[in-house]
Amino acid sequence: DIPSEIARLSRLNAFEIESTKLKLAHNKYSSSICSLITSCLDTLISSSLCSKCRTAEKQVELFGQKYYPSRTIYLDLYRASGTIPNVIGELTALTYLSFAYSGVNGTIPTQIGMITKLTQIIFSSTSMEGNIPSEIAKLSLLRMLSVDNTYLKLANNAFKVSICSMIDKCSQTSISEEECYKCFNSISTISPDFTAWIVSLVILGLLLILFCVCFLKRRKVFGVDRNSYSLVIRTARARSIQGTPITI
User: Fold this and answer.
1) What is the C-alpha separation between 180 and 197, in angstroms, rounded?
2) Which of 68, 93, 120, 220 is the most interior residue, by most CB within 10 Å?
3) DSSP assignment, residue 79?
4) pTM for the whole thing?
5) What are the residues whose beta carbons fall under 8 Å from the beta carbon of 27, sequence distance 6 or more?
6) What pLDDT, in 10s, does the model give residues 177-236?
7) Which region holds residue 222: left if phi is over 0, alpha if psi is between -120 and 50, else beta?
8) Read out DSSP for 168-219?
């Protein structure tokens, strides 16, 4: 039996068991595990149970197609047309979403901000317009936002810089050249010249510390001034020759 612990893997999007002898245990986790199985063909899971599993999870309809929210991780909707429905936010397992070269139009639904696993969103060469919603900035895993050859713009709000840092090919967007330049400079890391200056300053500081340590070692021996220590040694030797008790 497939262990129930599999159902607790919150980031698991697909589970392939074709050509194996694995079976579903009859417990409260059966439907959760079954919804992750990519195909029941050539498995020991019966077709009736497989059918029940498929109906256990509510499907999301998007541009005439139905998708399982827990198993849809890659979506290239190049044939889509019209406005993007709000239900897209229910496809929470998505990591890649593309509408490139499709017939979609209108504004970006704020519900896209609910798809927290997204790493790439592509709207390139579409008729999308309006401001990019601030919810996009909250997608911590998002690495690329392509809005080139669209009418999408940056809203002048607190999330402007965060969103701009994700935009690919800023010069080919509806964002002004001045905004692109400001955005680029605000998200740029420390410049190479400034980095070199900091490194030089650190090296100089270390050399100064080394010099001070060497100087102090020359001036003192175990915390006693070197001249005083030499005087004590000479006095001790003189007294030992005379047989006088030595007190330091």
Assistant:
1) 27
2) 93
3) T
4) 0.55
5) 4
6) 777 777 666 554 444 455 566 777 888 888 888 887 777 666 554 455 555 556 556 666
7) left
8) ESGGGSSS-HHHHHHHHHHH----HHHHHHHHHHHHHHHHHHHHHHHHHHHH
3-state helix, strand, coil in the chain (%, to 5): 40, 15, 45
Segment holding 128, helix H or strand E:
strand 127-131
Q: What is the DSSP string of 48-72?
A: HHHHHHHHHSPPEEETTEEE-TTT-
Which value, in Å, is the radius of gyration of the alpha carbons in the chain? Answer: 34
Q: Are 7 and 29 in contact (CB under 8 A)?
A: yes
For residue 152, give the DSSP letter.
E
- For 83-129, what is each residue's pLDDT tens digit? 999 999 999 889 999 999 999 999 999 999 999 999 999 999 999 99
Q: List Cβ<8 Å contacts ≥24 apart for 136-142.
A: 136/108, 136/112, 136/163, 136/166, 137/162, 137/163, 138/113, 139/113, 139/115, 140/116, 141/95, 141/116, 141/117, 142/118, 142/166
